[in-house]
Amino acid sequence: MASDKIIIKGKEIDIMKELGVDQAPLEIQEKIAERMTDIVLRRSVMKALEGFPEEEIKNINAGLTSGNTEETIKILDEKIPNFDKILSEQIVLLQEELLSKK
User: Fold this and answer.
1) How many angstroms separate the CA atoms of 94 and 98, rounded?
2) What is the CA radius of gyration of the chain?
3) Where are the domains of the chain?
4) Pairing with 40, which of 22, 54, 63, 75 sits 20 to 30 Å away (CA)?
5) Is 10 exposed, middle or buried (0-12, 13-18, 19+ CB in 10 A)?
6) Whether the model pTM is above 0.70
7) 39 with 94: CB under 8 angstroms?
């Protein structure tokens, strides 16, 4: 499953593993991988773009809506020194949300 892994600062992050879903049956993993990855990435991008100039935000949003997520992540990783930390924080927040709903 390639869509649940992203590269930040040259390090591959497996969002499904980080969220603890990698042990679920494959068909369930496939159904939720895209959604969880999308949630984590969108939240991370929103957090990362706080304080960015409006024109820069428009360019990044255009990349996201065009479906070129990998390129957008690469740009964010280059422009935001702590994007990897923001991503990790958003993964933890989603983990906490999921655990609180059990």
Assistant:
1) 6
2) 14
3) 5-100
4) 54
5) exposed
6) no
7) yes
Q: Are strands 5-8 and 11-14 parallel, antiparallel or unpaired?
A: antiparallel
* Residue labelled with tokens 């992050």: 13
Of 45, 17, 46, 44, nearest to 33 by C-alpha is: 17
Q: What are the angstrom distances between the C-alpha of 42 and each of 49, 75, 76, 81, 86?
A: 11, 14, 12, 18, 11
Output the tens digit of pLDDT for each of the chain's 102 residues: 445 666 666 777 777 777 777 788 888 877 777 787 778 888 888 888 888 888 888 877 776 676 666 777 777 788 788 888 998 899 888 878 876 765
SS (H, E, C) 33-85: HHHHHHHHHHHHHHHHCCCCCHHHHHHHHHHHHCCCHHHHHHHHHHHCCCHHH
Residue found by looking up tokens 């990435």 in the block = 41
